[in-house]
Amino acid sequence: MKSIKAILIMSIWTIFALIILYLFDAHINYRQIQWSIGIALALLIVHMVNMVIYFNITGKEPYKWFKNS
Fold first, then answer.
1. Whether the Cβ atoms of residue 67 and residue 23 lie closer than 8 Å to each other
2. Does the pLDDT of residue 43 top 80, yes or no?
């Protein structure tokens, strides 16, 4: 259940970041080197924040999928 909650929050954060990129016209200016570097850094930060969100919410639970009974 925690994984689903984390994925939902990660999706909301990612959509928010993509909307911000869209509002800054990143989809129009992606061929300019300054814009492409900025977009790449923004997407890298979004990915890193997604990882932090996921592991803060789920903790070590994702590693307990295969329990020995």
1. no
2. yes
**Eight-class DSSP state of 35:** H
- Find all residues with CB under 8 Å of 55, minimum gap 6, and list them: none
pTM for the model:
0.79
Say what the pLDDT of residue 58 is. 87
**In Å, how far are 33, 54, 57 from 60, measured between CA atoms?**
40, 10, 9
Q: Which two tokens stand for residue 41?
A: 């850094």
Q: Both tokens of residue 67?
A: 């329990």
Q: Which long-range CB contacts under 8 A does 37-42 form with residues at least 24 apart?
A: 42/17
Q: Average the pLDDT over 34-47 and give the result.
A: 95
Cβ atoms of 16 and 68 closer than 8 Å? no
